[in-house]
Amino acid sequence: LVAADDRLVILAAGDEVALGFDTGGLPPPPAGFRRSVFLESHGWDKDADRNTGAAEQLEPLPFNAMRGYPYRAGDYPDDALHRDFVRRWLTRVVAPPAWKDAGPASR
Known about the structure:
The protein has 107 residues and is largely without helices or strands. Helix content is 9%, strand content 0%.
């Protein structure tokens, strides 16, 4: 978590990210003070809005050097880091709710 890279956390509805770190090496804050943490994130918010490109699917994956979205086929970086990220981490299938395509009478 030292520098921005293209290995983004992929979250679905109801997911969360929890960060933990050891503060044992830090001096205690002065009396009346408390320690705060600032998280600077580098990411991409792609939601299921009808105005979002390819909103119904995960791909195309965003990457730091892209100039527009959605980008052209073949623009996603093809190197060991990116191939390993996709192979190792993008394995979960999130299906739409069963009622989504059932029509209004089933809701």
